[in-house]
Write a structure and sequence with these properties.
It holds the Pfam family Cation_efflux. It is found in: Membrane. InterPro entries: Cation_efflux (IPR002524), Cation_efflux_CTD (IPR027470), Cation_efflux_CTD_sf (IPR036837), Cation_efflux_TM (IPR058533), Cation_efflux_TMD_sf (IPR027469), CDF/SLC30A (IPR050681). This protein is mainly alpha-helical. The protein is built from 9 helices and 7 strands. The protein has a 3-stranded mixed sheet. The protein has a two-stranded antiparallel sheet with strand order 1-4. Helix 1 runs antiparallel to helix 2.
């Protein structure tokens, strides 16, 4: 729900601007519901088929699809929380829930990969006959279900939560293609060891495709400068404003997993302070140039006694390192 804020306090200034909270479910409620329903039904079918066909590839794929169901549920819940209004205690609302959900989903994913890897090693050591036709049939259904689910989230790539759902589903669709190929090879050759070998390939693909999600989730959790924002460029922009002599305590982070939810806090030394028009121009420029929609600026007419605050003596090296990382 939209809300306005235009606060003034000694030494602090906010330009008046609006922030619209994301809708409940992050605008993807239907996609989450459909994706969870389709994949949960498929997990049940694939698990039964995996045991019946004695296929570790199918069981590993079912295990990963189950983690996707849990991931979709967590992401959906976090997106719903992000759409709730702010309160006196949770002044930013519950947007940070999407960051915590992304971190938890990534941890669950790699825990599931570890369990499936253990099972696959056991199947490789003790190979057993595999029903190749049944494997190909179920994996073919998986291509259809995962492909449809991935398309539901295709338009939300700027949000780590939604991008995680998209990547998981698209990866599963591609993995199912590999399972179909493996089932066909087992059917043609009779080599049972091919099934767990393909399972290893599946696990490797999943781990590789999920690495970027893990990296981005950790960055969000550690309040790193969001991707796409050059902190040195932001500092240069602030220093270029009329009569600004120096910038300190510059912090840029994301309020949620959404790429357009960046926030900024900065202290500017500007003799003569600032008026509302100057601040409005400054914050509008931050939004236009860097997509920073929530900015809080403290304007000072001279250096603070005792120096700057918030360990800002460490800010410049940290910002430079973040700039090189992007």
């Amino acid at each position: 729900m939209p809300h306005d804020h235009d606060h003034s306090a000694p030494g602090h200034s906010h330009a008046g601007h609006q922030h619209a909270a994301p809708p409940p479910g992050g605008g993807f409620s239907a996609a989450f519901a459909i994706g969870i329903g389709l994949n949960l039904a498929f997990v049940v079918a694939e698990t039964i088929g995996g045991f019946w066909a004695n296929s570790s590839a199918l069981l590993s794929d079912a295990g990963h699809n189950l983690s996707d169901v849990l991931s979709l549920a967590l992401a959906w819940g976090a997106a719903w929380l992000a759409g709730r209004p702010a309160t006196r205690r949770y002044t930013f609302g519950y947007r940070g829930a999407t960051i915590q959900a992304a971190l938890l989903n990534t941890a669950l994913l790699y825990a599931a990969l570890g369990f499936i890897l253990w099972e696959t090693i056991d199947h490789l050591r003790h190979p057993a006959p595999v029903n190749g036709r049944w494997v190909m049939l179920l994996a073919g259904v998986g291509i259809l279900i995962n492909g449809i689910t991935a398309l539901l989230f295709r338009s939300g790539q700027s949000d780590v939560n939604v991008r995680g759902a998209y990547l998981h589903m698209m990866t599963d669709a591609l993995v199912s293609v590999g399972v179909v190929a493996g089932g066909g090879l087992v059917l043609l050759t009779g080599w049972a060891w091919l099934d767990p070998a393909i399972s290893f390939i599946i696990l490797g693909l999943i781990a590789y495709s999920s690495w970027g999600l893990l990296r981005d989730s950790l960055r969000l959790g550690l309040q790193a400068v969001p991707d796409g924002i050059d902190p040195e460029a932001v500092r240069a922009y602030l220093l270029a404003q009329p009569e600004v002599e120096s910038v300190h305590d510059l912090h840029i982070w994301s309020l949620s997993s959404a790429g357009h939810d960046a926030a900024l806090m900065a202290h500017l030394v500007r003799p003569g302070q600032a008026d509302a028009a100057w601040l409005a121009t400054l914050t509008k420029g931050l939004e236009t140039e860097f997509n920073i929609r929530h900015s809080t600026v403290q304007v000072e007419d001279g250096p603070l006694p005792g120096g700057c605050h918030s360990h800002c003596e460490l800010a410049a090296p940290a910002v430079s390192e973040a700039a090189h990382a992007h």
